[in-house]
Amino acid sequence: MTANDKREILVFAEQRRGRVHPVTIELLGKAIELSNRLPLMVSSVLLGRDAEGEAQELIYYGSKKVYLFEDSSLYNYDPILYKTNIVALAKEINPYAILFGSTHIGRSLAPRVAASLRTGLTADCTNLSIDEDGAFIQIRPAFTGNILAHIKTKTSPSMSTVRYKVMQRAKRDEKREGTIVKMTPLPNAPSWEVIDERVIEGINLPDAEVIVSGGRGLKRAEDFKMLEELAKLLGGVVGSSRPLVDEGWIGKEHQVGFSGNTVKPKLYIACGISGSPQHLAGMRDSEMIVAINSDPSAPIFRYADMGIIGDIYEIIPKMIEKLKRR
Amino acid sequence: MNIIVLTKVVPDIERVKFDAVRGVVDRSSAPQEINPFDLNAIEEAVRLKERHGGRITAISMGPSDVEQTLKDTIARGVDEAILLTDKKFAGSDTLATSYALSQAIKSTGDFDIVICGEKTVDGDTGQVGGEVSEWLGIPYLPYTSKLNYEDGKFKARVELENIIYEVEASPPLLVSVTKDINTPRLPGFREKLNARKTQVKKMDAKGIEADEGRLGFNGSPTWVYKIEVPEEGQRDCKIYKDPESGLKEIMIMLESRDLI
Ligand SMILES: Cc1cc2nc3c(=O)[nH]c(=O)nc-3n(C[C@H](O)[C@H](O)[C@H](O)COP(=O)(O)OP(=O)(O)OC[C@H]3O[C@@H](n4cnc5c(N)ncnc54)[C@H](O)[C@@H]3O)c2cc1C
Ligand SMILES: Cc1cc2nc3c(=O)[nH]c(=O)nc-3n(C[C@H](O)[C@H](O)[C@H](O)COP(=O)(O)OP(=O)(O)OC[C@H]3O[C@@H](n4cnc5c(N)ncnc54)[C@H](O)[C@@H]3O)c2cc1C
Questions:
Q1: How far does CA A210 lie from the centroid of its chain?
Q2: Are B209 and B107 in contact (CB under 8 A)?
Q3: Running DSSP on this structure, what letter comes out for residue A187?
Q4: CA A51, A53, A58, A64: dihedral to nearest 10 degrees?
Q5: Is A254 touching ligand 1 by the criterion CB < 6 Å?
Q6: Would you call B36 an interface residue with chain A, using a CB distance cutoff of 8 Å?
Q7: How far, in Å, is the centroid of ligand 2 from the Cα of B63?
Q8: Contact criterion met (CB below 8 Å) for A19 and A105
Q9: What gap in Å lies between CA A132 and CA A138, rounded to an integer?
Q10: Contacts of the segment B212-218: beta carbons below 8 A, 24+ positions apart
Q11: Which is it for strands A147-153 and B222-228: parallel, antiparallel or unpaired?
């Protein structure tokens, strides 16, 4: 590295079945913002097969360099094979920081990379910044969403996993230029042999624009039908607090909160949900929050933009009526 | 089969108090318990032992006052509980914690599988399992919701959100299990009583032959320099006591935001 070279902020570009996961674009958005605070170069690392098209996309989204590892063994995620190559790259370029999405892939891969590099890793960050002294500041919820911890890393690189749907996406611009650096994948014994692979179709809560969620204010599993009808009229999907998922009233993929999905829809309607810290952890950043609850002191009202104090069994059918009459 | 389970003793998260003004967590405000996510790890270990025989060792790092709580692992079917406790471990982040745990695992001899929980309810990083596997240089099967052992191999279902892998891997390896993998059984009265009479084996930094520079505060690259108990996120809520006028305003809002 020559004196003029900028240190890099390296984004792990997670790919699933050949497509870059949208959290990557959010990481690039954040990396670009940080590169204005310190002179840093935004780069990314992509592992996969026939991935040059996606690598070019990463350039359009603001990567100045894309380190591309291509091999058929890298198409599916393998913690050891991925780690081996990322560690080798990190040792070569000595980045300022490495960012991973806080997906299951990111959250299982980053610890292996961090331990191998003997460096610090901050989990599931909801904010990142750089202070006056050039130190990397990482903010993350802990204690099941009850507190926010501010964390610095004493070693280099700083490493973080970053929560999906929290950072602003980078803007795509085909005029952006950058280099694709083709890397030679290092061999290693894989973690496992994949015998079968399935993709679960079905709802994808984090991508929904409207979510109508039910909580313990619901009396029976069948009453989700009422919420479904409302959600459909609004072009949305149904969410749930955890107790109803635990009861088996609705699938786990509908759960919002600390141990479920984090969502940031344009509209979130909380029906009979009290607003526990663990539920709020998953939906607090929604653009518009509407709460319907019979208890005026329910915490959810403090986190909502609009609230109706009353019985969901009275209010929701009325709302459905009004929407149908339009 | 030699099975190791990693378990952490945590405060009961639904009762622990947070001081918003001073930015501190008052751990003494709540009783201790085994990390709820680790109950699934223990249960899975017991199931493997029931089918294939063997021995289960639980390893936990923490202050010495967690000893009694750790006996709960024995009541649930663990054969031996080891507590890593030493002032030198204080202030450990996940890198230092995973280093100490991996040294302790090595000191117990050969093993086939290490099982840990998905995450804890306090530190809440979900990183310790992956880091332990790296220190040990063994495969790591994350987010595992199904686990079997056949013909000398582990068969596991690894859940990567909407992508599900059915994988096969050879021992020794480390698995972190999800809450969906099983329903932990409650220990019976007799088991609890017997567990109370057992001893928890204690080990210190010397006992696990640790490089002291890798332990505790000095061995921890991350540093929590501030804690905030957020009041933020609160909004100015327009509250309607009368459903009719509330719904009217909601309809206006939906229109103005192009939601209908
Ligand atoms: C480790 C851990 C992880 C967790 N993860 C999650 C998570 O991911 N997601 C999650 O949601 N929770 C999670 N929880 C659980 C969380 O702590 C709460 O218990 C849960 O969110 C409460 O759900 P609720 O609001 O539906 O129920 P309650 O808190 O019981 O609230 C029900 C609300 O409905 C109102 N109500 C009742 N009847 C009516 C009616 N007819 N009309 C209108 N309102 C009515 C009541 O006033 C009340 O406010 C977790 C807990 C732990 C310990
Ligand atoms: C507010 C706060 C924020 C923190 N943030 C970070 C951070 O971002 N990065 C970081 O490196 N450290 C962080 N730490 C430190 C971290 O919490 C400790 O290192 C902790 O001892 C282990 O991490 P964990 O609780 O997150 O465990 P997790 O990684 O969530 O635990 C996963 C599994 O590992 C096993 N396990 C975890 N701890 C132990 C143990 N002590 N003994 C036995 N088995 C165990 C259990 O099976 C558990 O289910 C933070 C601490 C606090 C108080």
A1: 18
A2: yes
A3: P
A4: 90
A5: no
A6: no
A7: 14
A8: no
A9: 14
A10: B212/B88, B214/B96, B214/B99, B214/B100, B215/B86, B215/B88, B215/B89, B215/B92, B215/B96, B215/B99, B215/B100, B216/B87, B216/B88, B216/B89, B216/B90, B216/B91, B216/B92, B216/B96, B217/B90, B217/B91, B217/B92
A11: antiparallel
Q: What's the whole-number average pLDDT of chain B?
A: 95
Q: Is A312 in the pocket of ligand 1 (CB under 6 A)?
A: yes
Q: Do A308 and B130 touch (CB under 8 A)?
A: no
In this predicted structure, what is the pLDDT of residue A67?
Answer: 98
User: In chain B, which stretches have pLDDT less than 50?
Assistant: none
* A146 close to ligand 1 (CB < 6 Angstrom): no
pLDDT digits (tens, 9 = 90+) for B6-40: 999 999 988 898 887 777 788 888 999 999 999 99
Contact across the interface for A194 and B131, Cβ inside 8 Å: no
Closest CB from A154, A290, A314 relative to B250:
A290
Helix pair A79-93, B128-136: axis angle to 10 deg: 80
Mean pLDDT of the region A94-103: 97
Structural domains of chain B in order of their starting residue, each with its CATH number: 2-214 (3.40.50.620)
B251 contact residues in A (CB cutoff 8 A) = 322
For A315, which of B220, B243, B254 is closest by C-beta distance?
B243
In this complex, the residue of A196, A304, A322 whose CB is nearest that of residue B166 is: A196
pLDDT tens digit sequence for A139-186: 999 888 888 999 999 999 999 999 998 899 999 999 999 999 999 999
Structure tokens at B224: 């929590």
pLDDT the model gives residue B232: 61
Residue of A nearest to B92 (CA): A120
**B26–chain A Cβ distance below 8 A for any pair:** no
Token code pair at residue A128 = 């990142």
What does pTM read for this prediction?
0.89
What are the φ/ψ torsions at residue B25 (nearest 5 degrees)?
Answer: -105, 125
Rounded to the nearest integer, the mean pLDDT of chain A is 95
* Residue closest by Cα to atom 14 of ligand 1: A278
pLDDT at A1 over 50: no
Q: Which amino acid is at A71?
A: D
Tell me: the pLDDT tens digits for A257-270? 988 899 999 999 99
Listed by number, the residues of chain A in 252-291 with a beta carbon closer than 8 Å to a beta carbon of chain B are 252, 259, 266-267, 280, 284-285, 288-291
List the one residue out of A12, A30, A20 whose CA is nearest residue A52: A20
**How sure is the predictor about A51, in pLDDT bands with cuts at 50, 70 and 90?**
very high
A122 lines ligand 2 (CB under 6 A): yes
- Measured in angstroms, the CA of B143 and the nearest CA of chain A are apart by 7
In this predicted structure, the answer to whether residue A78 has a pLDDT above a threshold of 90 is yes
Domains and CATH numbers, chain A: 3-183 (3.40.50.620), 205-325 (3.40.50.1220)
Q: Cβ of B124 and A144 within 8 Å?
A: yes
